[in-house]
């Protein structure tokens, strides 16, 4: 008994924590601060259903409390049985018709938005078509019409529909960009479709929203929206092979001997691991470690012990003590080469 009483004392603390935590989050990962038409429609549905629920709860509670107070037996009252209204037509009609009206108010927009948001824009000439493939624990993005492929950073033009075909290479994941819309499960051997659209140029955070293994919580990605001109420049840059400076040539050889069997570095290449074309322009290493300017420590940590960064990753350790042996100097050369992949 005492133990339970102690637990009750924590309730104010939990309440305070809840209030504090509601202040967390940011503009680029919040379904409550939509940054595109799809997310706006979804927020409207959330507000509508929440509004109806709150209205119903309020009305029921007000009547309940009123009846409790008004009709309770007071001191000196006689034992009387109040007038029975069982089978009252008026009441039965009221509590049947009102829920029907509320359900209609909820159902009509929900169904129409569901139909609208599941429109297929893959053949739409004005849309950008991207194939999304989820892997444990990273994201692959192929742009079939543009002839490019990338990983971790989904780069899109603003104010255009991005038609997504979503699938998985291993287990069930879920594709979610809270600020832009979602989410959609990724299933093996099955393709789901959805579309997104961003209002302005920004970097939005995306998440895997389905428990998928040890590093589920680290399966982040970015959606980078750019103006049309910047997007086209990005596509062109990705299509051109990176200019490798002379001091990165040694690293290029290390890469060819050890990494190329899994990681493509050309425009369209698909491999067992993420395509690293344009790697040096990405903000994150493996989606979770900041690259940091003039700081290669994170990249070094990732190469020599990836499992400590992302438990369960399929990337083997490369280094003096790794499963795949590389000398310390070779790791340094490799980092130099990766940093040249603009
Ligand atoms: Cu992938 Cu969770």
TrEMBL record:
Cofactor binding note from Swiss-Prot or TrEMBL: Binds a copper A center.
Q: Output the superkingdom of the source species.
A: Bacteria
Keyword Cell wall biogenesis/degradation attached: no
Gene3D superfamilies linked: 1.10.287.90, Cupredoxins - blue copper proteins (2.60.40.420)
Gene Ontology cellular-component terms listed: plasma membrane
| Catalytic reaction annotation | 4 Fe(II)-[cytochrome c] + O2 + 8 H(+)(in) = 4 Fe(III)-[cytochrome c] + 2 H2O + 4 H(+)(out)
| E.C. no | 7.1.1.9
Q: Where in the cell is it found?
A: Cell membrane; Membrane
Instruction: Give the stretches traversing the membrane.
Output: 50-69, 90-115
* Annotated signal peptide: none
Pinpoint the Cytochrome oxidase subunit II transmembrane region profile domain residues.
20-121
Q: What molecular functions are annotated in GO for this chain?
A: copper ion binding; cytochrome-c oxidase activity; heme binding; oxidoreductase activity
Tell me which family the UniProt entry assigns to this protein: Belongs to the cytochrome c oxidase subunit 2 family.
Q: Per its database record, what is this protein's job?
A: Subunits I and II form the functional core of the enzyme complex. Electrons originating in cytochrome c are transferred via heme a and Cu(A) to the binuclear center formed by heme a3 and Cu(B).
Designated name of the protein: Cytochrome c oxidase subunit 2
The gene it comes from is coxB
